[in-house]
Every structure is written in C-alpha cells, then in structure tokens.
Amino acid sequence: GVTADFVLQPGESATFALRQVEDWTAGDGLLSTPINGEDALRRTVEFWRRWLGKSRYKGRWREMVDRSALVLKLLTFEPTGAIVAAATTSLPEEIGGVRNWDYRYVWVRDAAFTLYAFLRLGYTEEAARFMEWLSARVSEEDGPTGPLQLMYGIEGRHELPEVALTHLDGYRGSRPVRVGNGATAQLQLDIYGELIDSVYLFDKYGSPIHYDFWRELRRMAYWVCQCWEQPDESIWEVRGGKRQFVYSKLQCWVALDRTLRLADKRSLPLDRPRVARARDDIYEAIMTHGWDAERRTFVQSFGSSALDASNLLMSLMRFISPTDPRIVGTIDRTLAELASDTLVHRYELGKGAGDGLTGKEGTFSICTFWLVEALARAGRLEDARFIFEKMLTYANHLGLYSEQIGASGELLGNFPQAFTHLGLVSAAFYLDRALGQGG
C-alpha cells in the first residue's frame, strides 16, 4: 500500500484526493497533474447547489425531499442515463439471514418509478436520458420472457448470472454474499405497466415521443393483451413459484390504459377495440378474483387470502377511486394486519404468501410511503401526516434510507435505496398539496 507521513500545525489543513488513474505504465501518476482539493470541493458543492436549485418542490419537508432527490441523481449512471436500484450488494434484510441480493442493476420497475419522481421535481433532463436508455432496450429482440427483461446492467447488458461468493462472511455474518441476480430470468408482468406509464408521463411533462418508439410500445401493448392471464413472479420476485398476482394484473391494466390515453392524446395508430377490450377484461378479473368480499380487501393473488401492500397502488395508479369502499377496506386491513407500529410489511410471511425463501425481513419502507399517499388520497390527512412524519424519523443522520427497517429501528437491506426515496418524494408531493388545499 501507499503511505505518507506529514505534520500539521494548529489551524492547518490537508486535502486527500482519491483519483482514478487510467494508465500507470504511461506515467500518468498522481503527481503529474496536482489537484487543488479545496477548489475541487468548492466546484462540487456549487454543482449540487445549482442542481438542487432547479427543483420545483417548495413545500413541507423540503430538506428530506432534497436529500431524496440527491440520492436518485447519484443512482443515475451518467454515460448511459441508466438508473440503478441501489448502490450496494448483499446488505441483509435480516442480520445473519440469507435474504441478501445484488441491487446494482437497472430494474425497469424501479427506474420507471424514479422517472416519475424526476418529472415531479422538474428534472426533465434526467428523465430524458433514461428515456434514451429505455428506447434502446425496447427496440431489442424479444427475450424468453417477452419484449422486455425485468433488469439490465447499466450499459444494457442482459446476462447477470447470480453467484454466491462463499469466501466472504458478509455484513455481520449475513451469508451468502451475492453478485448478479437470478431474478433476471423471471416473468414479471407488472414492468409493462410501470414502463408505459412512465412513457405516458414523459410525453406529457417532458417531450413528445417519436413514432418509432410508439411502434415498440404498441407492440408491447399487444403482447400484454395476449399474455396478461399468465401467472408470474410479480413485483416481489418470489422464488416459490408463479401465481396470479393481483398487482401484476393491475399493472397490465395500467399498460393498456396508458397506451389508449397516449394514442388518443397524440392521435397515434392503435387497434383501440382490441386494447380496450383486454383492459376491461383485466379490470373485471381483478374485481372478481382479486377481491375478498368477506374480509373487504383486495388480496395478493387470485384465490388467496393473503394481503399485499402493493395493492395500495390501485388508487395511486388511478385504477379505482381513492374513496371507493374497496380500496378503503384494503387500507384498513393493511393497517390492521401488515403494519407494525405504522411501518408496513409488504406481505404476510407464512400466511399463504410464501416467497420460497427462509428467514424473516423487516418492514418495507416504500410500502409505508404508499400507505401515506393512499390515506392522503382517501382524505385521511391526519393519519397520513402522522405516519409520514414518523417515518421521517427512521432516516439516518444524512436523511438516507435503505430498503427496509428492522424491529428495533435499524436500517436493513441495500443502501441507499431508490425505491424508498422515490416513495418519499411522491408521498410528500401529494400530502403537502392536500394539506394546502385543506387549509
């Protein structure tokens, strides 16, 4: 290693600079171009202040929204516009457990939700860069699971084999440490809704999409018309077998609904009767097979009794009125059965919602923010504000979150997590606006 000895007198300072050197053999050493550390720091601070100054958010909890915006920007890969789910691999969902995954990739779902957050904050340039990356993906040939793969490398790589690094102990003895992600080969139908919704919003708040991109989106919509009835592994990437997940059906409905809206808005060519018929069939299927009339709640999958917090997105995605008795019942059941001191689990482990994995996990932070927004949309502003502001206390000293929160309040899972921070941004936007309208 490299070492150095130096002496500092009272009032003096020293700067340490970490720098990537492309070619040591060519004599490109650290001393060939000295770095003015103080100047570099000043320019860095100025850059981030200018960037934050572009944010349109001026409401309550602005500091936390700004911190979340910074996280989302830092999870963006500048050369391609790709947005990764988190910056780390294998930080455990349970200390000493096996639920340790590699999140250093671009999930279509997570990145699409991040694009929503960028657009709300006014960062259209970041949204446009991701659209460029996405456009390249949708124009590729179909893979074994359909027009899209659920995740990619930051440069667009398809192969992400999951390997356990058995020689590593992992964080606080949490093994295995994994690189790559085996969920890559899964079928997750929900990604089409999240993707097409993000395109719809970008076309509305960013820039109009071009015709060749529309042709690819239309092709995906027709594929959804044909394949929405298939079972899949859905948003939580279960490893216990495919099911008819309600959330996946919801997002298939979103995919077709937004396709119709985009076609009508831009007068784009589309087999409207075919798409509208499939959209309506999905709606009826969810209401018939995804609803538990006895318990007054939507369930995780057709025919099951298990709850799933992802169903809170029904009102957020405009599938159902936010005050419809069915979503109100789902909110109440979520509070009663999935919430632990206002923090929300994504589903009930061991109650018909088995995910094929051993061990436990913490509460899922984005689910808590979904609950906040669902409550706010239902007009329950006092409850929403209480849960939101309590959730803010679980951030670390830098205002950052991981994926989950443990029973004692510790952060669990990969860190920092885009999902959690984009959920915070969305909940803050809606709750702040609702509180303003309510006086």
UniProtKB/TrEMBL annotation:
SUPFAM superfamilies: Six-hairpin glycosidases. Residues 62-428 form the GH15-like domain. Pfam families: Glyco_hydro_15 (PF00723). One of its GO terms (molecular function) is hydrolase activity, hydrolyzing O-glycosyl compounds. Coiled coil: none annotated. InterPro entries: 6-hairpin_glycosidase_sf, 6hp_glycosidase-like_sf, GH15-like. It comes from the Bacteria. One of its GO terms (biological process) is carbohydrate metabolic process. PANTHER family: GLUCAN 1,4-ALPHA-GLUCOSIDASE, TREHALASE. This is Glucoamylase. It comes from Sorangium cellulosum (Polyangium cellulosum).
